[in-house]
Amino acid sequence: MSILEDKIRKNREHYDVHEPAQGHLERFTAKLDAGFHAGEQGKRRISWRYAAGIMILAVVSGLLIYQFSRNTPTVNASPVSDELSQVVEYYDRLSGQRLEQIAGCAANDEEAARISGMAEAQLEKLEVEADVLKDELDRNASDERVYGALVTNYRTRIKILDNILTQICHL
Q1: Residue 170: other Cβ atoms inside 10 A
Q2: Helix (H) and strand (E) counts for the chain?
Q3: Rounded Cα gap, residues 109 and 101, in angstroms
Q4: How far is residue 38 from each of residues 26, 57, 68, measured CA to CA in Å?
């Protein structure tokens, strides 16, 4: 036994002197039941409050999104951006064709995966540079040097893939 239990047992008559008043257990049970049921109603009210708040937030958000999407100024597509999107699409299509040809020239799947991985690593470096150039072009659309550098970047991709094709397939 612990020291505390031993002390309580020795002095039990001091602790048992004060008994609860008559009807204490009934009053306690009644309060406990009333508190339990009141807590349920409070939770229901709180959950309705949360639901109402979420609904209001959703409606306001929807209205704001609708309002901002309607009032956004329309950006007139400049000839440079249309032309650039066509250039990007053309060179991306050529890159995909070259990568397929490289995979077809490989002796086996393992070699194809290795060569494709090397080609894609080189293309990723050029893609990072292209992203920087695109950001610069967005800031200054009238700068033809940036546009030319971007087109040169895409041409360089095709040259790299053509070199790989020439070395592997001996075209």
Answers
A1: 7
A2: 6, 0
A3: 13
A4: 18, 28, 45
Sorted by sequence, the CB contacts under 8 Å of residue 163 that are 6+ apart come out as: none
* Token pair recorded at residue 144: 């033809």
Is it the case that residue 88 has pLDDT exceeding 80?
Answer: yes
Residue 80: the pLDDT is 59
Please report, as a single letter, which amino acid is at residue 7: K
Q: In angstroms, rounded to a whole number, what is the distance separating the alpha carbons of residues 150 and 133?
A: 6
Q: What is the rounded distance in angstroms from the CA atom of residue 144 to the CA atom of residue 101?
A: 33
Cβ proximity of 162 and 94 under 8 Å: no
DSSP 45-64: HHHHHHHHHHHHHHHHHHHH
pLDDT band at 75 (very low <50, low <70, confident <90, very high): very low
